[in-house]
């Protein structure tokens, strides 16, 4: 690991100390544009020409050839003037939201060094939070951009599904896979995301309502609720009569519970993960860390005959969300249900109950189910431990959401 | 190859004679529903548990393990009552629109035995046209459902991008990859497609206008123009004042040419193909048939620095199409620019000029660029050689398009 290649202006932590990178190198810009002068890291699920894409697992690394081309998203960033400085650590095969890799370690969460950075884009979030890069490329299927953004106190963007190229990115669950961005500021987040979305400007959108989802706030720990009170109050003041408390029942769930989204989400995700990774796992018999092995056991236990009904449920929810959210509308909810878990204190993976994972997925699966864009804003902290707040918009209104997030950033300073 | 397993009611050709299948077997329904009593084939780019997905190339077959799960789309069809009877031949790695596989031969086009079936879903189209299955699963990136549907005289559906699960399907160019259906009738097409789309019924859509694109008709061979005159006249009579002649300039192209779509399309597609298949090709050094080898040479020659600008152009076109097409609107154009080429008379791959391929891509890339759903209707023939006509709808209006195609089928009988 060579520290001397990374020189962003605001570096506060050495590269080796961060444990954010699996490899560092220098890839020069291939053009000039809105990202001139910025540097970025790439989650090691995404191809950089000449490097093996390791996907966070040594058996994967050993059993795959090197990439011969940059992923399309990497190409877009280089073409827009940014330089790439390395590949970042992730959870094994991107299948965790914690950020502790059994083989490669836990990237530093510099704002809360005794806590996990969140995953699976752990190294990308850490590199941004440590000031080693201006922004980082990552993927978000279940929350792998949004959760580490919240845990590490940086900005995170998950796009509408289907609007950023996934060529050169290892699939996990294609129905939900997206390319996202983590960044040190709302401005950098928007600049990088707009390059990836291939749109130059915001379509004119009449500002709509902001729906503050009461069940989402009721779901989170009391201390997180407390930390978000003031930021939400400022948003409500800013939006005035256009801010309203909303219920999940208005958004199309058929029960008084956010879990209706995550139950549906998990069935589809697990079925797709088995389709994407099952053959390789059966053939290569990789060693996994204990948490990831347990997650893959859940995947293998799924009765695939449940998938068709889950997909129908997903389309009903998605249609309801589409009907409810008008152009210019925003949804406001916490990004995560709790502070980042302490290192080594990993909450067990399960999809139901009141533990960390089920509540987390209840919050993050809304964007997955609805194909919606979401930004996690680093608006608060509890004794220095970061707490994120999320805004979502209608499918396809990514540029509007990014510009709105930029315009609101000042509220929380 | 065991013929005795396939017994659809209207079989006209023996399985071996069709050369449509790479393997036949019997996979029972996993449930009961709208597809009860129907049987289907699966393009061998799509996983069936226990079988290797060969992707039309022997080196691929030899270098990959067997699938451990059915692709999600296969699971949906089995769950809805259909039974699967085999895997169908395709062009190597799905990267051709002709349907001649150097290693596995050319599936029979029963309506025009001296002509190619079209690709890359050659076996799926042949199996349907030969009456060996009621419908077939296929993929469509550049036209791999629509072109063989037109050539073989069957119904073909390409969905809106992002609405049918691609888990368990080998990626070619993810920005454009879709799962589609070929079927012997509009009714079966709609039933199977609605199962895959996970929607039960059609959202109420006010019938809109039908835009007959004049440059698309001007682009095709005179005999194809002639064959489509009467079907288009019947459509115009049916729609009355809501039928209108339209120009590509209204659809957002910046030149008076359909080629503006296909030029943009090809740059993105080739970049994504290299990202998806380049590392394997470099490592496995597969033997390719001469046509496919030439196509991969084009991919390797692409200057990837053109990709960012092409993606921006794509989003401009896509937005223009979205603005132009209102809910309930249809676009009407020929599916292909010429009759199916004669076997062995393969037109050379190129992306510009007035040859078969550039004109074909000029027609098929509209759906890819705009993420639009498209149905190819088997409405005409020239001395028995089939000619298809296409209808497209707004992104997300797949159910409306399928129901409309069903309701129009009688016009062409």
Please give the most extensive interface between any two protein chains, plus how many residues each contributes.
Answer: A-B, 54 and 54 residues
The helix-strand sequence of chain A is HEEHHEHEHEEHEHHEHHHEHEEH
Rounded mean pLDDT score of chain A: 93
Which CATH class of the largest domain in chain A applies here?
Answer: Alpha Beta
By DSSP (H or I, 4+ residues per run), the number of helices of chain A equals: 13
The strand order across the widest sheet of chain A is 1-3-2-4-6-5-10-11-9-7-8
- Can you tell me the number of structural domains of chain A? 2
CATH architecture type of the largest domain in chain A: Alpha-Beta Complex
Shape of chain A: globular
Q: Describe it for me?
A:
The structure is a homodimer of 413-residue chains. The N terminus of chain A is likely disordered. Chain A has two domains: 195 residues, Amidase signature (AS) domain (Amidase signature (AS) enzymes); 203 residues, Amidase signature (AS) enzymes (Alpha-Beta Complex), CATH 3.90.1300. Chain A has an eleven-stranded mixed sheet, sandwiched between helices. Chain A starts with 14 loop residues before the first helix and ends in a 5-residue tail after the last helix. Chain A is α/β, with parallel strands linked by helices. In chain A, strand 10 and strand 11 form a beta hairpin. Chains A and B meet through helix 3, helix 9 and helix 11 of A and helix 3, helix 9 and helix 11 of B.
């Amino acid at each position: 690991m060579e520290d001397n290649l990374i020189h962003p202006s605001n570096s506060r932590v050495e590269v080796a100390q961060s444990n954010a990178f699996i490899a560092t190198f220098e890839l020069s810009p291939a053009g000039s544009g809105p990202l001139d002068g910025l540097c970025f890291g790439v989650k090691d699920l995404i191809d950089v020409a000449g490097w093996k894409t390791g996907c966070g697992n040594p058996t994967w690394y050993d059993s795959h050839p090197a990439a011969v081309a940059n992923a399309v998203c990497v190409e877009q960033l280089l073409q827009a003037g940014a330089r790439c400085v390395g590949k970042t650590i992730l959870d094994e095969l991107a299948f965790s939201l914690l950020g502790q890799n059994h083989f490669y370690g836990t990237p530093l969460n510099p704002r809360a060094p005794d806590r996990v950075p969140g995953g699976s884009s752990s190294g990308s979030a850490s590199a941004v939070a440590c000031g080693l890069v201006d922004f980082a490329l990552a993927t978000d299927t279940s929350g792998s951009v949004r959760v580490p953004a919240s845990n590490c106190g940086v900005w995170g963007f998950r796009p509408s599904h289907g609007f950023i190229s996934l060529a050169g990115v290892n699939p996990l669950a294609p129905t939900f896979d997206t390319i996202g961005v983590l960044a040190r500021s709302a401005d950098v987040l928007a600049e990088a995301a707009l390059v990836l979305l291939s749109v130059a400007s915001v379509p004119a959108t009449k500002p709509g309502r902001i729906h503050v989802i009461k069940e989402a706030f009721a779901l989170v720990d009391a201390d997180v609720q407390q930390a978000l009170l003031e930021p939400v109050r400022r948003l409500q003041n800013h939006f005035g009569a256009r801010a309203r408390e909303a219920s999940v029942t208005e958004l199309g769930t058929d029960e008084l519970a956010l879990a209706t989204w995550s139950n549906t989400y998990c069935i589809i995700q697990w079925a797709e993960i088995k389709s994407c990774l099952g053959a390789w796992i059966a053939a290569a018999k990789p060693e996994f860390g204990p948490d990831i092995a347990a997650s893959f056991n859940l995947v293998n236990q799924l009765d695939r005959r449940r998938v068709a009904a889950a997909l129908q449920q997903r389309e009903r929810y998605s249609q309801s969300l589409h009907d409810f959210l008008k152009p210019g509308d925003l949804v406001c909810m916490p990004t995560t249900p709790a502070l980042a878990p302490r290192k080594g204190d990993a909450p067990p993976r399960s999809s139901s109950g009141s533990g960390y994972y089920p509540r987390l997925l209840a919050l993050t699966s809304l964007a997955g189910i609805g194909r919606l864009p979401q930004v996690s804003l680093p608006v608060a902290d509890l004794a220095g431990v970061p707490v994120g707040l999320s805004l979502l918009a209608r499918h396809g209104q990514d540029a509007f959401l990014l510009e709105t997030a930029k315009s609101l950033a000042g509220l929380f300073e």
